Description:
Blueprint: E1 2-5, E2 10-13, H1 18-22, H2 27-31, H3 40-51, E3 55-61, H4 81-96, E4 103-106, H5 110-123, E5 129-131, H6 141-150, E6 155-160, H7 164-172, E7 185-190, E8 199-204
Parallel strand pairs: 3-6, 4-5, 4-6
Antiparallel strand pairs: 1-2, 3-7, 7-8
Amino acid sequence: AYYLNPVKHKLILYMGTKSQANQPKSPRSQAKHPLRSGNFGLERRIVAGLGGRLMLLLLFRHGEAEEAGPGCPDAKRRLTPQGEAENRLCLEAVLRAGVRPDAIVHSPLVRAAQTAQAAAEVLEPPEGLHEDERLACGAELRDVEETATQHAVDTLMLVGHNPDFSVIAGELIGGGAVALKTSGIAAIQLPVVSAGAGELQWLIRPRLFASP
């Protein structure tokens, strides 16, 4: 049986007992081999574990921000006190889980830059903070693909906006709805940042950690 160690990002091959390993396989058992069964998710893990790395991509939607209005254009909207507090709740949960991004890349909009700065203070990425215009409002999957290619690290955090990140997360895992609330973080593991290549590892939002 094959399984993935999500902490070390390595493939583990379990052979069973010696007697089981030495027994000849029947044609029926060979027909059920995972690489012949159409199990794409398992095949992805095997290929990545044997020949390459798995990236953990963290999509972090900025915290709650003030409303736009006269004298406050959308690009200049700042986080509210609640947005700052909710960012902290989710970031501390990530830290407790032992996940630390190697780099953080963020949209140039003020609310995203503030969120990224808070993430850097809590998680201390060794390769620091990077601003990228491609993650501004309207980002698409190709923008995330290019950004991930530029920052080729094991764990990458991107800080941006909705509906962009919810749509991109769904595309990366091959379809489905991924509802990223403000301050929400989706963790997707993949061998290459491409449509359908990823698997959602976890999804967190502030209300999971709020006091009753």
